[in-house]
Amino acid sequence: TERARKAVADEVAQIKLMMSQPRRVIKAPEPVAKPAAPAAPAGTLHKPAASADKKPADAKPGDKKPGDKKSIKSANVSSTWSDDAKKRGAPSGPKGRGGPSTGTGRDGWRAGGRSGGRRSHGDDRETNFQAPTEAIVKDVHVPETITVAELAHKMSVKASEVIKQLMKLGQMCTINQVLDQETAMILVEEMGHKAFAAAEDDPEALLADQGEHAEFESTSRAPVVTVMGHVDHGKTSLLDYIRRAKVASGEAGGITQHIGAYHVDTPRGMITFLDTPGHEAFTAMRARGAKATDIVILVVAGDDGVMPQTKEAIAHAKAAGVPLVVAINKMDKPGANADRVTQELVTEGVVPEEYGGESPFVPVSAKMGTGIDELLEQVLLQAEVLELKAPTEAPARGLVVEARLDKGRGPVATILVQSGTLKRGDVVLAGSSFGRVRAMLDENGKSVSSAGPSIPVEIQGLTEVPSAGEDVMVMADERKAREIALFRQGKFRDVKLAKQQAAKLENMFDQMAEGEVKNLPLIVKT
């Protein structure tokens, strides 16, 4: 109706007027001395008598007057009000009857009271708050493996934001999933922070101090010589003649199935030989940065010439940066041609000394024994040029040449000592395995109590089979060796879990080629 419409319009006008008025600023009252409370009215309007606490002096205990009961009640009530007001610390008296009030009317009700106080504080917070003008860039140190939750905590963001960013990068992850270092660093850079590769709480940092043997005196050591070449070119037969033993006859099919490590005492000095099969161990050692050998003897058959594995051996030797001594074998055969082999080797970049190169070429015959003495002389001559030295009194450091699991003796590892002296009873650390040396055997199977530099020995007592090419070092404390071994095991496991993906069809064949996927034969009956 018209009246209701007019009432609504009036109310809207009043609200607009109220909203357009400037806001009242309420300030906290300054602390002042508390004023004395005014005397509360006692009794009724007709009897403004004294306080209820005091009785009339002339009144007797037994006297009663009409109306006393009612007046006493009102006095008690008024005194109770005044006492409550004193306890609250506010002036007594009703709010609307002359007492202090924060305001009257609609505006006064809005400005005063508790709600008004809360409103004013909220307004102050809103006006004082300033949003950050630019994002904070953090320096995030990323270890080798880290979970999504830990990475989010380092960047001070929610884990859901990290998971969302991973989804944008095409990787589905959960909050507890382990990320490898490369993925985590890419993620940190994508989210606008600076990533640094770090290995936190790495107990292997203690090994750096123990690895220095500067305080020990170095003495000359025997050269470590690796015999390399193509299959069936006579590498093991050459070593047989040098050692005066028949190792090749005990091998199935004449193919070397293990790494032989021998040290031979010659009239000109001691030499340690490593016989490699297929160069896998040599490549693994070179990949770990371990210089396992000092000199390489490249065996080439005089009748076959340069073959594919010969080229591979030349590449390995050049990559390791070790000198080459070429032995042209099988010179007793009628079809042997040393000049043709020399020309083929020159084509591969191995130049003989006669042509101005650095590699000595020696024609030998492992069957007849011709040229063997000259070959050993060239090897020792190269060793003198290299001036090979190592400390003997220091704790031993070396390399795992080969390792296997023996049924009766447990994990057995062939160790090549590179510096220091390895003794029976020492605590050794080899990769992720450790143990106390219970027994040491030389290449002939005889028990020895110690082994110096360039001496290969077979040790027992490790907790598990180490990988070929792992560094070996003697630790002073078995507890520290166990701690480092467990740390390496956990790190290897975390890295493997972080990098492995679901066995999809596209990478299943790659894993099969690497030999990681095991074949399980099944017989389906129905």
Question: What is the fold's blueprint, element by element?
Answer:
Layout: H1 2-20, H2 68-88, H3 105-111, H4 113-128, E1 139-142, E2 145-147, H5 148-155, H6 159-168, E3 178-180, H7 181-190, E4 194-197, H8 205-210, E5 218-220, E6 224-229, H9 235-243, E7 260-266, E8 269-275, H10 280-287, E9 295-301, H11 308-320, E10 324-329, H12 338-347, E11 361-363, H13 372-386, E12 389-391, E13 397-406, E14 410-419, E15 422-423, E16 427-430, E17 433-441, E18 450-451, E19 456-462, E20 471-475, H14 478-499, H15 505-514
Parallel strand pairs: 1-4, 6-8, 6-9, 9-10, 10-11
Antiparallel strand pairs: 2-3, 5-12, 7-8, 13-14, 13-20, 14-19, 15-18, 16-17, 16-20, 17-19
Helix pairs in contact: 5-6
Please, could you describe this protein's structure?
Helices cover 35% and strands 20% of the residues. With 526 residues, it is of the alpha/beta class. Helix 11 (308-320) links the parallel strand 9 and strand 10. It is elongated, with a radius of gyration of 47 Å.
The level-1 CATH class of the largest domain: Alpha Beta
* Order of adjacent strands in the largest pleated sheet: 7-8-6-9-10-11
The CATH topology of the largest domain comes to Rossmann fold
Shape: elongated
The biggest sheet, with number of strands, parallel, antiparallel or mixed sense and barrel status, is: 6 strands, mixed
Structural class: alpha/beta
**CATH homologous superfamily identity of the largest domain:** P-loop containing nucleotide triphosphate hydrolases
Number of domains: 4
Beginning-to-end CA distance, first to last residue: 88 Å
Helix content: 25-40%
Beta content = 15-25%
- From the alpha carbons, calculate the radius of gyration and give it in angstroms: 47 Å
Under the CATH scheme, which architecture of the largest domain would be assigned? 3-Layer(aba) Sandwich
Number of strands: 20
Low-confidence stretches: 51-64, 69-75, 98-108, 246-259, 286-290
Roughly what is the average pLDDT, rounded to an integer?
A: 73
Number of helices: 15
